[in-house]
TrEMBL record:
Gene Ontology biological process terms, A to Z: branched-chain amino acid catabolic process
Protein name: Acyl-CoA dehydrogenase
Organism: Kyrpidia tusciae (strain DSM 2912 / NBRC 15312 / T2) (Bacillus tusciae)
Domain Acyl-CoA dehydrogenase/oxidase N-terminal: 5-118
Taxonomic classification: Bacteria, Bacillati, Bacillota, Bacilli, Bacillales
Record-annotated Acyl-CoA oxidase/dehydrogenase middle domain positions: 122-217
PANTHER family: ACYL-COA DEHYDROGENASE, ISOVALERYL-COA DEHYDROGENASE, MITOCHONDRIAL-RELATED
Amino acid sequence: MHPFTREHDELRSAIRQFLQKEIAPHVEEWERAEQVPRTVLRKMGELGYFGLNIAEEYGGGGENPLAEAVLHEELGRLNASGFAGTVGVHIGIAMRPVYRFGTEEQKQAYVVPGVQGEKIGALAITEPGAGSDVAAIRTKAVREGDGYVLSGNKIFITNGVYADFYVVAAKTNPEAGHRGVSLFIVDRDAPGFHVQRKLEKVGHHASDTAELFFDDCRIPADRLLGEENRGFYLVMQNFQWERLMIALQTLGTAQAALDMAVEYAKTRQQFGGPLTQFQVIRHRLVDMAVEVEKARQLTYHALDLYARGIDAVAETSMAKLTATETACKVADEALQIHGGYGYMNEYPIQRAWRDMRVTRIYGGTSEIMKEIIAKRMGLLP
C-alpha cells in the first residue's frame, strides 16, 4: 500500500529521468569538487522541483507533501547523498519554516527566490555544545534599537558555505530554557556573520558542511521568524517533515544498494558460476529486500498520516529510525557481497556505505527517536 496517485507516479518518472540525464553523469565530479553547481539548482527551480509543496502564489505548484516526498525518495535512489542533502536541506529544512511561519515580506524575500533556485538556504541550530538538546544552545540574540545582535557559533551546518540565507536559532531569553529560543533569518552578507571553516566529512562530499560564527552580527528586527521566544516550538513542528524527508532519502538509497548488490551477485563469476548460485548469497539478498520493504511500508504509512494532517510524531520517528538503520545495514551487506571491489572508489556501493552512516545521527539520533517513541507509548513521566 502507498498513498501516491497516478499523477505522483508520472511525476516520479519525470524526476527519475531528469536525475539520470542531468545529475547521475556528474555525481563523481561534484563529489570531488565538494560542491553542486548553482546552475543545476537553478534548473531544478525552473522545472518546479523546489516548489512541489509550496503554494502557487509563491511560485510553487501547490501544497502537496506527497509530491515533494516523491522527489526525496528519487534523490535517495540516485545514490548521491551529497547532492540530495544540498537540495533537501534547502527545500525541506531551511525554506520550509520561512514558508510556514514567515511574514509576507519574508516569504517574498526568501521563499519566492528559493523556489526558483536563485537563493539557497541552510538551517543553523547545532552548536559545539548542543546537538540533540536544542534548548542548550548558547548563541544569543539581544535586541538593540531597531534590530538584534547575534553572538555565538554553530557547527555541522549543511549548506553552511553555500547558502544565501540561514534560519538561525538563538536565545532571546537565556534564563528560560527552551522557552527562550527564537528563530532569525540571517543573510550571508550580514555584518558580523562569518563562515568560520568548511568541515571535512567521511561522506556526503558534494554537500558542504560548515562551522559558522556570529560576531556581534547585526540584523533588522524584521528578520525575526515567528514570535520571539517561540522558536523551539517552530523547530519541533518542522521536525516531523524533516524526519520523513530523511527516511525517504535513505529508503531510496537502501533500494539502490540492494539493486547494486543483486546486479553484482548475478554477474560476478566465482567457482564456475554467478554468486547467486550460493544459497547463502540468495538468502542474504532476500533478507535485505524484506528489510527494505518493511522500511518502505512504515515510511509510507507515516507519510500518509502526515499528508492527511494527522499527528504522526511517533510514526515519523519510527520511520526515521527504521529507514536509517535499514539503509546502514543494507549498504553494509551490499558492500560485503561486492567483496574487495566494494571497498574501491570505482564501485558506487562504497559511497552508499559511507553516506548512510551519518543518517542515524542527523535530524535526531536513533537514540532520540527511541525516546520520542517511548514517550508516546507512555513509558516516560
